[in-house]
Amino acid sequence: MADARERTDEVEVSLDIHLAHSARMYDFYLGGTTNFPADREAAGRALAVFPYARSAARANRAFMRRTTRRLAEAGIRQFLDIGTGIPTSPNLHEVAQRVAPDAAVVYADNDPIVLLHAQALLRGTEQGVTAYVQADVREPEALLEAAARTLDFDRPIALSMNALLHFVPDEAHRITEGLKARLPSGSALVMSHLTPDFAPDETARLIQVYTAAGTPVAACTSEEFGRFFTGWDVLDPGIVATPRWNPSPEDDTEHITDAGASCYGAVAIRP
After folding, report:
1. Are 84 and 113 in contact (CB under 8 A)?
2. Containing H/E element for 56?
3. pLDDT at position 2 over 60
4. C-beta separation of 186 from 228 below 8 A
5. Under 8 Å between Cβ of 212 and 203
């Protein structure tokens, strides 16, 4: 069996590099190099049926940058990013700490490939704090306990779950409600999620490719996506395709069509 083993902070990590991995496929879409033949083959199959994979990844990454910048400018100084993925600069802490050098950022992911690259996520400002926890979003209590070693849950926190919950479809709402319940007033929920609303046939085929590769995926409609924000105040412009959320020319994603993004994005604040 082909695998790769390394130790990071005394934790042994085993990677089944002969199996496609969603984080490494995403890295491939973004033009990264942290991927193996199995990932590239699976990504090629995905691109064959869903030609928007690259533009969707770029649009999602730009959405992260804009939402982080906007929330930091609004005064939020704590960020919890779940489903971090392989580091791709500028990472969330770089965006937040560019606005607020004293910002505290915690990254959380359960993918072993991310653990191997975690040190790239820890190079923040001297005034701020950056931390990484190896945790599974399907176990939110343990994840929050680990995050609380760095973040103060009595002060507002921006929780980001971008392009994550479509990988845990049966548990997505349970997870989200559990996390929302722990965040204080003034906190933000930032989410993006695969949708079939713009390219239904292509999205259906994409889901088949991922499922066949061992990664179940589900897309949601605008109405279904809105349920994640129940009880919170959704900021303008509401629930929109990721490139439509307060677009910025510097991101160079405004030209991406709704189908090319095939993800909804939104930000909401807890009253």
Report:
1. no
2. helix 53-73
3. no
4. no
5. no
Question: H or E segment at 241?
Answer: strand 240-241
Note the pLDDT of residue 7: 34
Burial 219-243 (b: 16+ CB within 10 A, else e): bbeeebbbebbeebeebeeebbbbb
Please say whether the beta carbons of 245 and 267 come within 8 A: yes
Give percent of the chain with pLDDT exceeding 70. Answer: 93
- Strand intervals (E) in 9-140: 11-15, 78-82, 104-109, 129-134
Contact 88, 114 (CB under 8 A): no
pLDDT for the residue numbered 265: 98
Is residue 79 within 8 A of residue 67, CB to CB? The reply is no
Q: Where are the beta strands (DSSP E) in 141-213?
A: 158-162, 188-194
**Tokens standing for 228?**
């994640």
Q: Report helix angle 92-99 to 53-73, nearest 10.
A: 30
| pTM (two decimals) | 0.91
In the three-class reduction of DSSP (H, G, I as helix; E, B as strand; rest coil), residue 143 is classed as: helix
Average pLDDT estimate for 62-84 = 97
- The pLDDT value recorded for residue 217 is 96
Residue 157 DSSP label: -
